[in-house]
Automatic annotation (TrEMBL):
One of its GO terms (molecular function) is hydrolase activity. Pfam families: Abhydrolase_1. It comes from Streptomyces roseoverticillatus. This is Alpha/beta fold hydrolase. Keywords: Hydrolase. Gene3D superfamilies: alpha/beta hydrolase. Signal peptide: none annotated. Residues 29-118 form the AB hydrolase-1 domain.
Length: 264
């Protein structure tokens, strides 16, 4: 399936009904999974997550712009909100009244910003990409997400910034990692994840982070959770967990799926 974003980018996507049925019955929640940078809908980590979530809900996976079989170029978390909005809108067009977004790493930052910019009642402007209200999420999970932009405090993030900011790095990303990155800098700089979090309430928000995350240390999840409404925000710090979907074990994914599907 190819989805068309609000800015005209074609994004590849796939729909998986809840396990045991060819079509998900009315009332079944849908979970939209948003992968990390250099991921795609056919990568093993995302496929494993989809299989776990499909035990409880219908699942939509997609490849962000510049990744996999999608068109365009990656803006590394900015205009990707339009990709996620297209996937959520598709879930609602299929009859799902409850839609959760679960994002990993870059996808986690996108899920937070998407929830802030697409509200239940009306599009949230904030000078960015606010759009149709049928693209809003009801429940949000951010796994291994950064709290702020331009973080270079760890070796993996310094390598990533080199890869996206230098012509040679972008060539390596394209031909070595299958990810096409735009050369232009952000203009304007988008709303940061930690700035987005207060705009999500009263919708349920779960922040999940590992104590062995090599990309973002624990001040990131603590900052995100601290910015949220305590009545609707939860924080899980997972012992032994590394980074994003590739490191997420089935037990953790099952707990997240249970949390998502038991929210009102």
């Amino acid at each position: 399936m190819a989805l068309l974003t609000a800015d005209g980018v074609r994004v590849e996507a796939a729909y998986q009904p809840r396990a045991g049925s060819r079509t998900s019955p009315p009332g079944t929640p849908a979970v939209v999974l948003a992968h990390g940078f250099t991921g795609a809908l056919d990568r093993p980590g995302l496929r494993r997550a989809a299989q776990v979530f499909a035990q409880r809900a219908a699942v939509i996976t997609f490849s962000f712009r510049g990744h996999g079989g999608s068109g365009g170029r990656s803006s590394v978390g900015d205009r990707e909100v339009l990709d996620l909005a297209a996937a959520v809108r598709w879930a609602r067009s299929l009859g799902h009244e409850r839609v959760a977004t679960v994002g990993f790493s870059m996808g986690g930052s996108v899920a937070l910003r998407h929830a802030a910019l697409y509200g239940r009642e009306r599009p949230a402007g904030h000078g960015e990409h606010g759009g149709r209200t049928d693209a809003h999420s009801d429940t949000v999970v951010a796994v291994s997400a950064p709290a702020r932009w331009y973080y270079r405090g760890t070796a993996p993030m310094r390598r990533l910034h080199w890869a996206i900011s230098r012509p040679a790095g972008r060539l390596i990303a394209r031909y070595g990692l299958g990810t096409r990155v735009q050369a232009e800098d952000w203009d304007p700089v988008p709303l940061s994840p930690v700035e987005a979090v207060p705009m999500i309430a009263p919708r349920p928000l779960l922040i999940v982070h590992g104590d062995r995350d090599a990309y973002f240390p624990l001040d990131h999840p603590y900052s995100l959770a601290g910015a949220g409404d305590p009545r609707s925000t939860e924080l899980w710090i997972e012992r032994g967990f590394g980074h994003a979907e590739s490191a997420a074990r089935a037990e953790l994914l099952e707990r997240i799926a249970h949390w998502v599907c038991t929210r009102d």
